[in-house]
Specification:
The structure is a homodimer of 411-residue chains. By secondary structure, chain A is α+β, with helices and mostly antiparallel strands. The first copy, chain A, has two domains: 275 residues, 4-Layer Sandwich (L-amino peptidase D-ALA esterase/amidase); 124 residues, Ubiquitin-like (UB roll), CATH 3.10.20.340. Chain A is 32% helix and 27% strand. Chain A is built from eleven helices and 16 strands. In chain A, strands 1, 2, 3, 4, 5, 6, 7, 8 and 10 form a nine-stranded mixed beta sheet that branches. A seven-stranded mixed beta sheet of chain A has the order 9-16-11-15-12-13-14, sandwiched between helices. In chain A, β4, α2 and β5 form a beta-alpha-beta unit. In chain A, α2 runs parallel beside α3, α5 crosses α6 and α7 packs across α9. The N and C termini of chain A lie far apart (44 Å). Chains A and B meet through α8, α9, β14 and α11 of A and α8, α9, β14 and α11 of B.
Chain lengths: 411, 411
């Protein structure tokens, strides 16, 4: 697998993209983003588990039920979530799907729709229509980066990646873009993500691959414990490379296995970029819980630590206040013996400083701990000694900047 | 029931208190607090459900198992939680219990022990010993307020209350003090609280009363979703009034019922004071979910809204961004139909502005909503229309001040 320099959503063959500023964003930045495939795609999606679901999520679920093998593209608007907008919102999402299909010249159910932004405001359909046509006019292989820009909201940088994957019968490419920043938490599709590939993959295989990849990537990141009404990850495979991924051989080293690993890599990298760009984030934290009875419990504890405002503010202050991590671990609803636990931290995931061993503070030097907590990347390992399962999550700190961004989001 | 002016923990007959600065707090403020009863008390406690439990919590649970009818007092230190301190920590807690018993002249298992502060540091026992004796030398009926001061950490004001309760055979008094500020969340005993009464109550009745009162008070507040290793609420009844609460009549209007109501009032008022003094809090929010299928689900949704950083920062910014409350409600893990929901807000709990009805934004005036979100007290009501159950929680906003306090807590 080779990571492509300046790789984008249009790195896989047969994909084009375009973006436009429709005026939904007061800033005048691009807020319409279009990804289009020259061939029909098999497509799969993972969606928010929130009970309050935005109109485009409902529409995409419906669309993928009737058409998951002839998808042509994805239209996204940023600045307005089209959530809590009732029947009118759903009609608007349908209209957006129809307008974009007309603009690119395919039929309506071949387009998928994404929205992100403020909740509870109806989409300005005149702006959407003009924006969609403007984005369609831009469609080209060079506009992948612009498309990734167009889906951003409070993101401070564009999140995209592409990798080349040599397989037995040729090389395929996977491209991806994502937006995140706030309302990021595991157990949901977590944000907007669009992944493209020119491999040819049967739709049921594609679904399984996407679910497995999301499980160890987008579902393992937490910015603020909040999950959106709109979280969606879409995967489109257009077969443009002519390479077919055969499901019948899924042994180690098979095309299936190599492609799956590459897809996981793309999803993990996008996920980590989302955490690094968490609203107001100044630190990136990789948190591993080992020695749990099972994976669910390991994940539950890691998540609870990652979500704790007291833990996150301690990281923001570069304060080696590890007691808060133990407090957070203890409230996860998972039984463990505090006297068997150890906690260690590292600046690189290789050299570790043990802070707590057998439930007791070690005689570590305060300056050594302070030096690690002062880093911008911090690795944490909590060892439970209850079993053999482990889980890793990625999170960021909770800073003044987070409060500033979110106290005045709409102003 | 009459609320006493300047009521404290020593308002009930037969209780005295004292406080001292032992030097555990670098600020030189009082950090040892002693509450003592001239008569033996029946006593009950509610403790943290965190898996990581501080030494004094383990000690009090053990003490109340062997002695819940002859308790004489409570010794508290602030500035050091005596948590994650292993066997040495437990020995230190026992030593603290013994020193305080000697200082006041009772036997060791007649004292209960509380600690609050930094996790993972052993108690400085020399300072503790000197402080306990200094506090014991201060014991008097006038020092109730000082005792309440002595248990504070990041609290910005002292939390105390006392009420007089006229019963059929005489008047009894209930006094209470609490400390909170951070690591405050429901489903735990939630902070340190000590409640005294001069009623005479059998210990099993006392336990039931305290559990019921905590359930609708301390378990209904959330500052940051974090729960401490040390959370404890203690209730001591010394019978000093000579009035016995007979358990056999618990009908409406009975002494039992009237006293229980008064105890709930004391617990609720202390709980609300804790929220008002939440770390960095600038707003007090009363959040009610009605029309849920059952109380557990109502509570679950109310809690999830109260815990959401995005909701809390919107309140901090006086931003009527109610979509975030719907998002938070939707991620609570409770099934409901978003198209049947309504959401309303009020500055006083009496006049309501409906923002969302039947899942759709109403045509409310943005200025009217902004005016309510600008208040320092805000009432929110989410109506689900799934059933008849409801729950209320109290919470506060998430401000820059919260980050400042918690990023640099130990420095």
């Amino acid at each position: 697998m080779n990571i492509l320099k300046n790789g984008t959503i249009t790195s896989p063959q047969g994909f084009v993209a375009g973006a436009a500023a429709s005026g939904i964003k007061a800033s005048g930045k691009a807020d319409i983003s279009l990804v289009f495939s020259e061939h029909d795609c098999t497509a799969a999606g993972v969606f928010t588990k929130n009970q309050v679901v935005a109109a485009p999520v409902l529409l995409d679920q419906e669309t993928l039920q009737v058409n998951s093998a002839l998808v042509r593209g994805v239209i996204t608007n940023s600045g307005n979530a089209n959530a809590c907008t009732g029947e009118v919102g759903l009609q608007n999402a349908r209209q957006m799907q129809k307008i974009s299909a007309e603009a690119v010249g395919c039929s309506t159910p071949q387009m998928l729709v994404l929205s992100t932004g403020v909740i509870g405001v109806q989409l300005p359909m005149d702006k959407i229509a003009a924006g969609v046509h403007a984005a369609a006019a831009e469609l080209s292989r060079d506009q992948g980066h612009q498309a990734a820009e167009g889906i951003c909201t409070t993101d401070t940088f564009v999140k995209e990646i592409a990798v080349e994957v040599p397989l037995s019968s040729g090389t395929v490419t996977i491209g991806g873009m994502a937006k995140g920043a706030g309302m990021i938490h595991p157990d949901m599709a977590t944000m907007l993500g669009v992944i493209t590939t020119d491999a040819q993959i049967d739709v049921d295989v594609l679904r399984g691959m996407l679910n497995a990849a999301v499980d160890v990537s987008f579902n393992c990141i937490s910015v603020d414990g909040d999950t959106s009404t709109n979280d969606t990850v879409l995967l489109l495979a257009n077969g443009g490379s002519g390479v077919y991924i055969d499901r019948r051989d899924w042994s180690v080293g098979s095309d299936y296995a190599i492609f799956s690993e590459a897809l996981i890599h793309v999803c993990k990298e996008l996920s980590k970029l989302i955490v690094r760009d968490g609203e107001g984030a100044s630190k990136f934290i990789e948190l591993t819980v080992t020695g749990a009875r099972n994976k669910t419990e390991a994940h539950q504890i890691a998540n609870t630590i990652a979500m704790s405002p007291l833990v996150k503010t301690a990281f923001a202050g570069s304060d080696a206040n590890w007691g808060r991590m133990m407090m957070a671990a203890g409230k996860a609803g998972v039984k463990f013996n505090q006297h068997h636990t150890s906690l260690m931290v590292s600046p690189d995931g290789e050299e570790w400083l043990v802070l707590l061993d057998g439930g007791l503070p070690t005689g570590y030097r305060e300056e050594a701990a302070a030096a690690i907590f002062a880093q911008s990347d911090i690795y944490v390992n909590l060892i439970l000694r209850e079993g053999l399962a482990e889980a890793t999550v990625w999170t960021c700190d909770l800073t003044h900047e987070y409060v500033t961004i979110n106290a005045d989001y709409r102003t």
